[in-house]
Amino acid sequence: MANIQRNIRLFKIDAFFGVWPLSTLAIIYFQQITHSYAVAMLVWSMSNLAQTFSEIPTGIYSDKIGRKKTLIIAALTNVFGFFLWALAGQLQQIGLLFAGAAFCGLSDSFLSGTNEALMYETVEELNQKENFSLFYAKYKFWVQVGSVVSALSAAVLMYFCSLQTVAWISVAPISGHLITALLFVEPKHTKIQKRTASWLHFLIAFRRLWRNKKLRFYAGLTVMDDAVGSAFIRIESAYYNTLIKAWLINIVKLVKQISGMIGFALVPFFKRFGSVKCFFSALTLAEILRLFALLLNNVCSPFIIAFRKSLWGISHTARTDILQQEFSANQRATMQSIIALLKGILGAGILYLFGLIADIYSPKMAIWMALYFKVILLALSFIILKRSQKIVLGINIFCKIIQRFAKGDF
After folding, report:
1. What are the C-alpha distances in Å from 20 to residues 15, 154, 274, 314, 385?
2. At 318, is the pLDDT very low, low, confident or very high (cuts 50, 70, 90)?
3. What is the C-alpha to C-alpha distance for residues 334 and 62, in angstroms, rounded to an integer?
4. What is the radius of gyration, based on Cα positions, of the chain?
5. How far apart are the C-alpha atoms of 13 and 180, rounded to whole Å?
6. Cα 361 from Cα 208, distance rounded (Å)
């Protein structure tokens, strides 16, 4: 019988296959085909909707059938989606962009929750559950290393090649996920066939998520924070392109991923403060840093925003640790899928809204809106958690400052 310890090594290898040289300039690539930022953002919305509508069945599949099979299907659909995106640019067919987005969204739905569940169940079987956040941070550290390789290769490729060529080259690295998926060892817990009917499995997961007050709060916060954050990530390159050359955006991506490496490497040092404190402290500082970058609005801004990735590494690990500890063992992936489902519904609308704002006003205005929503969300979170009135007042003042500068800038 294969030793499940192998999964720890495979996660590190699998991280490198997330290399996607086109990622930083995807919105620009889509805009060249669609001739509209709004339609380009709709491509991402299609991906979100495809993920949204398949989240629940794929989450149930992962819980009932197993993590390994789920990851294999995720890898296959992702490769096909990237292939269609490259073909769309070659043939200048918008329809292929949306078809590729549908397959990539389906892949994300299979992957959603499964990766983290496999990691948690692996360390649980190794009797190291209390160190999940450390294992997770190490895995994400190697993801950032892979992204650094992606940014470097993209910078070189963009200097010598067209965006279309980069799109074709980007199909190859993602195929490595299929190799690692075939080599992963299934945890003993998920080898046991679940006999609960799928609809009942979903209802049990939803009821447990809703009745757990702590889980309900962090699930809601995750849905709203990720929906807005996803829109920011998709539109940020368009904003950067107004400040720096296109090939320099890949250097920004490089700085961003190195910052992410630093953030995940620092997790062990901050672990003693607890996941909740780490999560909210890092999240707040990240938005302050983004505000400072937008106020500067010059060639330094993209690099400052990229540096906030180090804070994201700390907050993301803390949030994942909180959620995984609250998820029930038999509905772990399904609960994550419910969160992703809600995030997809909200995110699809926000993606199009920000694309529309970028078309009518500017990408910069869309970025300001993303920041404004993030700050409002933080303020509400602090109020719900009954933090001190000074913190709440500080957040409110922060919101007013953003409104003031935003009106003056635009």
Report:
1. 12, 8, 33, 23, 38
2. confident
3. 8
4. 21
5. 8
6. 44
Per-residue pLDDT tens digits for 72-83: 888 888 889 889
| pTM check: above 0.85 | no
Residues 219, 224: Cα–Cα separation, whole Å? 9
Nearest CA to 147 among 173, 169, 172? 173
CB under 8 Å to 79, separation ≥6 — which residues? 171, 174, 175, 177, 178
**Which distant-in-sequence residues (6+ apart) come within 8 Å of 390 by Cβ?**
none
DSSP 113: T
Q: What angle do CA 360, 50, 121 make, to 5 degrees?
A: 125
8 Å CB contact between 146 and 273? no
Containing H/E element for 173?
none
Task: Give the pLDDT confidence score for residue 388 in this predicted structure.
Answer: 43
Give me the amino acid identity at 285.
L
DSSP string, 199-238: HHHHHHHHHHHHH-HHHHHHHHHHHHHHHHHHHHHHHHHH
Block residue for tokens 């993030």: 374
Work out the angle between the directed axes of helices 114-125 and 94-111 (0-180°, nearest 10): 20
The DSSP string of 287-340 is: HHHHHHHHHH-STTHHHHHHHTHHHHHHHHHHHHHHHHHHS-GGGHHHHHHHHH
Phi and psi at residue 318, in whole multiples of 5°? -60, -45
Q: What angle do CA 268, 273, 278 make, to 5 degrees?
A: 80
CB 129 within 8 A of CB 68: no
In 3D, which of 170, 294, 162 has the Cα closest to residue 240? 294
Q: Residues 6 or more apart from 389 whose CB is under 8 A from it?
A: none
- Is the distance from CB of 325 to CB of 215 less than 8 angstroms? no
Query: Rounded to whole angstroms, how far apart are CA atoms 216 and 210?
Result: 6
Question: From its phi and psi, is residue 197 left (phi > 0), alpha (psi between -120 and 50) or beta?
Answer: beta
